From TrEMBL:
<dbReference type="InterPro" id="IPR001757">
    <property type="entry name" value="P_typ_ATPase"/>
</dbReference>
<dbReference type="InterPro" id="IPR032630">
    <property type="entry name" value="P_typ_ATPase_c"/>
</dbReference>
<feature type="active site" description="4-aspartylphosphate intermediate">
    <location>
        <position position="433"/>
    </location>
</feature>
<keyword id="KW-0333">Golgi apparatus</keyword>
<keyword id="KW-0479">Metal-binding</keyword>
<dbReference type="InterPro" id="IPR023298">
    <property type="entry name" value="ATPase_P-typ_TM_dom_sf"/>
</dbReference>
<dbReference type="InterPro" id="IPR006539">
    <property type="entry name" value="P-type_ATPase_IV"/>
</dbReference>
<feature type="binding site">
    <location>
        <position position="829"/>
    </location>
    <ligand>
        <name>ATP</name>
    </ligand>
</feature>
<feature type="binding site">
    <location>
        <position position="719"/>
    </location>
    <ligand>
        <name>ATP</name>
    </ligand>
</feature>
<feature type="binding site">
    <location>
        <position position="434"/>
    </location>
    <ligand>
        <name>ATP</name>
    </ligand>
</feature>
<feature type="binding site">
    <location>
        <position position="609"/>
    </location>
    <ligand>
        <name>ATP</name>
    </ligand>
</feature>
<keyword id="KW-1278">Translocase</keyword>
<comment type="similarity">
    <text>Belongs to the cation transport ATPase (P-type) (TC 3.A.3) family. Type IV subfamily.</text>
</comment>
<keyword id="KW-0445">Lipid transport</keyword>
<dbReference type="GO" id="GO:0005524">
    <property type="term" value="F:ATP binding"/>
</dbReference>
<feature type="binding site">
    <location>
        <position position="800"/>
    </location>
    <ligand>
        <name>ATP</name>
    </ligand>
</feature>
<feature type="binding site">
    <location>
        <position position="718"/>
    </location>
    <ligand>
        <name>ATP</name>
    </ligand>
</feature>
Amino acid sequence: MSSSLAQYEPGCCPWSRCCGMGDFRPRTVWLGHPEKREQRYPRNVINNQKYNFFTFLPMVSVSQRCCPWSRCCGMGDFRPRTVWLGHPEKREQRYPRNVINNQKYNFFTFLPMVLYNEYKYFFNLYFLLLACSQFIDELRLGDLYTYWIPLGLVLIITVVREAVEEIRCYLRDKEVNSQIYSKLSTRGTVKVKSSGIQVGDLIIVEKNQRVPADMIFLRTSERNGSCFLRTDQLDGETDWKLRLPVACTQRLPTAADLLQIRSYVYAEEPNIDIHNFIGTFTREDGDPPVNESLSIENTLWASTVVASGTVVGVVIYTGKELRSVMNTSNPKHKVGLFDLEVNCLTKILFGALVVVSLAMVALQHFAGRWYLQIFRFLLLFSNIVPISLRVNLDMGKMVFSWMIKKDSKIPGTLVRASTIPEQLGRISYLLTDKTGTLTQNEMVFRRLHLGTVAYGMDSMDEVQSHVFSAYTQPTHDLPASRAPAATKVRKTIISRVHEAVKAIALVHNVTPVYESNGVTDQAEAEQHYEDTCRVYQASSPDEVSLVQWTESVGLTLVGRDQSSMQLRTPTGQILNFTILQIFPFTYESKRMGIIVRDESTGEITFYMKGADVVMAGIVQYNDWLEEECGNMAREGLRVLVVSKKSLTEEQYQDFEARYVQAKLSVHDRSLKVATVMESLEMEMELLCLTGVEDQLQTDVRPTLEILRNAGIKVWMLTGDKLETATCTAKNAHLITRNQDIHIFRPVTTRGEAHLELNAFRRKHDCALVISGDSLEVCLKYYEYEFMELACQCPAVVCCRCTPTQKAQIVRLLQERTGKLTCAVGDGGNDVSMIQEADCGVGVEGKEGKQASLAADFSVTQFKHLGRLLMVHGRNSYKRSAALSQFVIHRSLCISTMQAVFSSVFYFASVPLYQGFLVIGYTTIYTMFPVFSLVLDKDVKSEVAMLYPELYKDLLKGRPLSFKTFLIWVLISIYQGSIIMYGALLLFESEFVHIVAISFTSLILTELLMVALTIQTWHWLMIVGELLSLACYAASLVFMHDFIDVYFITTVSFLWKVTVITLVSCLPLYILKYLRRRFSPPNYSKLTT
């Protein structure tokens, strides 16, 4: 990333690595002896230029996507800001307009940029120069339209396609920018378009309305003083997020009072971090002045949707400074391996074109103005490089994409990158996420472990009984005659179970929401805590499953607002708790906590739950935590450790004072808050472990079996812990039961990595399981050795992986193996991996559509991947290979005939066919049957799914190789020579008869060759053959200038054309029969 950014920074040398600036190292400097330097150092030159001679034009072109007036509109640099509520005119700097613009071009740059993108490739430029050369009389070979019509057709298709896409983008942007919102002003509530919103405006957002700009949450209409946001279009997570208003403004009587107070928000500079925010709210006219810290909980980011109530916010960022816009990156433009191979073949064809042209001039002994003759021959044989190849392949890809979309057996599948469907037919490595991709992301509570006793699904009735006993049996007046030991044990178990269930019911961010069910309205349901109307909302499915479990055992969460929580006991009693502090879960802390006060007793308790790796150092010493966490993880359960700590009033007041002071800090806030929290997070009482299971998706096992049999190696990259990831891999049969597993020991140094790699090298045919930390060390010191060993494994599981590591692994696989990779994921953390892979597949799941929208292909279930690769990927690749080679064959045939014709007539640079004959040959006469090859298939889809080994043959690239290319070249030379020599031998008097005989034979040969190539006939193929033949027969009437119409009605013409066509095609039909008879391909054995 840094290297790509350097080119934008003034003063950075573009050749920094060459001149020693790419890597800063210590140095030994000899006094007065510069020649003794150990490395190259940069020249002592001051350079404040943004561009150099070579980068000026490209960089100016690239920057056209950015606002050209960025510095004028306040985007030159990002700075913190002070925003006065309701007074946008008090701004300290100019801010960008609140306009969403996803267009690639504008009115002035559209045509220049489209033409530049089209002709920056050599072969497109070659055809343009070819057409332009016909304006020079000495180089002209025929009518201008024979060159300009094909070129114009290709260009029109490109321009129209880009224009349609650009218009769609413009309309989408216009719809978003024109949405109407309500704004609080001194004149009351006024309507304003989204594009007219400014920093400092007070905006009212209704329920189910999109937030138009980044705002600070000031007020809500909800009674509980909070609101929920749907953030799936921002972070890919479908669970609602709880947001809290500024306490000072929420207490105001009405929203209009926001304009009467003198207050402002101090906000940090705009950045891309959607999970954090640092700011403060200050009210100056208070007595005393009010200062409140602002965090992510007080924000309403643009592109989120308000899910509950009506909210009022003050705008702090607009336009290009929005978090959602700054996180929008343009994915790399993916060019398929097939396209690169076709480009390689066209380069060979261009070389052949130059060689043939030089040979023709050499055989003339370079007589006269031979250099002009070279150009004329280059033009004459230009058909060797077919201009129609790119058009046919692009149209074929559109058909393949349409077939994928319309396949009823994989409903909901979308193709977002229609340029690479054939890539799906050559995948060697599949990298998949675990949660939500292989698993359903639907959590089921499975285990409660108290250390001495564990409760599974079959013993939850015991837990329910203990909870019931805790609220019904008095604990202080037991009869003295009862056995004291037994009583003590029983009370201890009841007490421990009760404490554990109570902690789980309190330490979460779940909010019960009541909805009308048709019988009871929302207000009544909320008042009486109706069970049938209650649904739980949280930012994690784990949280919901835990609260649903506590409800099932008798302790039900029935109410929650910003400052309180209500639980209902098995006896129907309502327990009220005041929420004093909440410490939300983050990926860095891996834990969450809450401090509550029990209203009935006044006790203050700090509850905390989190991952075992962080909680082990927080809870009191015990001898069972690590072992039991490992046991539960090996069962495939996601483990959480629950603990508590009782606080006195004095302890809490002391903590609160220090915590509030730390949160008000603008600089190093996170560090100061963490320091205060550490004083509280120590010597906590361990209550229990919880185990939640994430179930596998439907048909994951057979799908992975199909992929493995197809020769595809599957790697699982997950952020989950090692034991859980290993268990899921076994459960999904990613790792087979008879396969050895090598679990890579944790390493931190180069020496440890070296020893562990040597130990791994001694094992053969075993699956590898490695953590993200160890992976980072191995890649730092032994990248080549590690990748070499990992690529030999039948399966690899990488756990505790960050999104950056996932993308890095994909990139290394591409670089080290040269094979095609496919990445599959369902969440926002998989986007970087999906965009880095050769083929990215997004699964629409519980975590939203962010991965699906960023992917090249979108599926609704993992099992659809099997058909996508085995059927559509295989067919797309084989059809593309056949189509490309046939288009090349079609062009080489007519070029060979031209070469024979020129050779016979003393190497004259005279065209054999002129005018419409040249255009008609590649369009209406042969286009339909040749393009119908996109419907061909060698086996039925059921057979392709039943025998995935057929896919393995494609990994070697045999359908399109130098061998098959050479075979088609030889066939083209043979047929072109036979047709031309046959016409020359059999014609009798007039030259025009040569044209009639040879051209008719050529058309019939192409139609017969299509029939020879087809393996499974489709009714459209027959229509294409007959339609082309009919078009040619009908057009003969209008071509008096090229063909003798009376001659083609004679018997002489018919028998000559028949003989030539049979001689050119019959040997190939015989060879095909013999090959099928004595050396049949694999697929033919399955269809017979």
